[in-house]
Amino acid sequence: MQDWKLKQRRTIRIIGTAAAVLSLILASGRLGPRTVAAGQDPSSTNVVAIDNFTFTPTELAIPAGTQVTWINKDDVPHTVVSVDHKFKSRALDTDEKFSFVFQTPGKYQYFCSVHPMMIGMIIVK
Amino acid sequence: MSKYIEQNLDRDGVDRRGFLKCMAWAGTGTLCLLQGGVLKSFALADVLQQKVEHLTGDLSFVQISDSHIGFNKAANPDVTATLREAIAKVNALATRPSFVLHTGDLTQLSKAEEFDTLSESLKALKTDRIFYVPGEHDVLNDNGEMFHQRFGQDTQGDGWYSFDAQGAHFIGLVNVFNLKAGGLGSLGNEQLEWLKKDVAKLKSSTPIVVFAHIPLWAIYPQWGWGTDDSEQALSYLKRFGSVTVLNGHIHQTMQKIEGNIAFHTACSTAFPQPQPGHAESPGPMKVPADKLRGLLGITEVNLIRGKHTLAVVDSTLQD
Questions:
Q1: Under CATH, domain B16-35+63-316 is a member of which superfamily?
Q2: CATH assignment of the domain containing A19
Q3: Radius of gyration over alpha carbons of chain A, in Å?
Q4: For B73, nearest residue in chain A (alpha carbons)
Q5: CA B105 to chain centre
Q6: What is the pTM of this model?
Q7: The total number of structural domains that make up chain A
Q8: What is the dihedral of CA B160, B164, B169, B175, to 10 degrees?
Q9: pLDDT digits (tens, 9 = 90+) for B172-181
Q10: Which residues constitute the domain of residue A43?
Q11: Contact list, B282 vs chain A (CB under 8 Å)
């Protein structure tokens, strides 16, 4: 676990965040919800990539208290806006990030207010 | 090949052959003459050789769109340069346009310096006035406050308005606010009510020109290319003999005739976007540098009074 973490940090430092995001997507697959078990280090799996006008993963399940970070990989600005007005990012340009800590269990639907056909869901357990 | 409708299977005033012929010219110089709801299409080359008569109208204006000042990615690293080329193209037209409509996405990120560059560049346009409607890129972080301060004076609500020119009624609509999750462009009830009242006093013979950023017809909802409540808006315009709807947003020319309503979308001055469904997403389309200017352009519109005719001519920066 410790070695893995160190290795991950080095990867991020050397190759950059983009590669880390990509590897996460590849490791998890693009379809279906992903779950982070309680007690597991959530830092490696709480990233949502915005790529090709899609939130990936579209649905992410996390334990309460987890921070989720969105990274825009597109050439156009996107936003991350809660349908229930719980959180709202500014417009994220290419490679810009937005983070939010989910304290309360529940289902949080969100969308891009610039391209509203882009929708996603965070499930907090 | 006939230039008139031969088959009208869907009763929408468009036959497949005429539509494809028109589409084939999109991006290379198209002229579609709309006469009493009948589509006549001509190659721009024929127009330039004066094979087509009666093209000079009582009113000439130009539509430009989607300048995206501030965009600097591979699809076009210098959008200010291509905007200037578009302006030069407008200034070189045989007929000086009475005014220019900018159908939104002036900027990429709604930044003050982007609006400044846009305004400074457009000062070179040889025309009397420029009318604007916002695109979603112009109202990103401040609910459109900066856009409205600069371009939205004398407008209603979120920035809609109308004006009259040479007997035609022009309506600028705004469909980029209060977008709902999973939805498309939105006009909203307040604007729809205003529109209903705005056209109520007009004679049915008045030519109507509607302009808005996101298309008011369902081009490709999967990519957000449509407006949720456009049907209601268009229902208020059904009694008019000539309605022309001009949109931007999709960075390519498309046209459709539905009854008395002619729809048309303009090219961007910044970068092209893929044809509907021809890519994973509607993001900026990268093309070889020598192809770019063939996919950017301007739209000239001529109103010919007494004939219910609007002649819409697209030309690229390369033509």
A1: Metallo-dependent phosphatases (3.60.21.10)
A2: 2.60.40.420
A3: 14
A4: A75
A5: 12
A6: 0.81
A7: 1
A8: -10
A9: 999 999 999 9
A10: 2-124
A11: 53
Question: Which one-letter amino acid corresponds to residue A23?
Answer: S
Comparing alpha-carbon positions, the chain A residue that sits nearest to B76 is A75
Q: Which of residues 5-24 of A touch B (CB under 8 A)?
A: none
Give the burial class of B280: count Cβ atoms within 10 A of its Cβ; 0-12 exposed, 13-18 middle, 19 or more buried: exposed
pLDDT tens per residue, range B248-276: 999 999 999 999 999 999 999 999 999 99
Percent of chain B with pLDDT over 70: 81
Give A85-105 pLDDT, tens digit per residue.
999 999 999 999 999 999 999
Residue with tokens 């340069």: B81
Q: Which two tokens stand for residue B17?
A: 């052959």
> Which residues are CB-neighbours of B108 under 8 A, at least 6 positions away?
A76, A77, B68, B69, B70, B71, B79, B114, B137
Residue A75 tokens read as 């050439």
**Minimum-distance CB partner of A83 among B108, B181, B184:** B181
- Compute CA distances A13 → A17, A94, B66, B129, B279, whole Å: 8, 19, 38, 53, 33
Q: Which of B164, B136, B214 is nearest to B61 (CA)?
A: B164
Q: What pLDDT digit, counting tens, does each position of B30-65 carry?
A: 454 444 433 444 444 445 444 444 455 678 999 999
Size of the A and B interface in Cβ pairs below 8 Å? 60
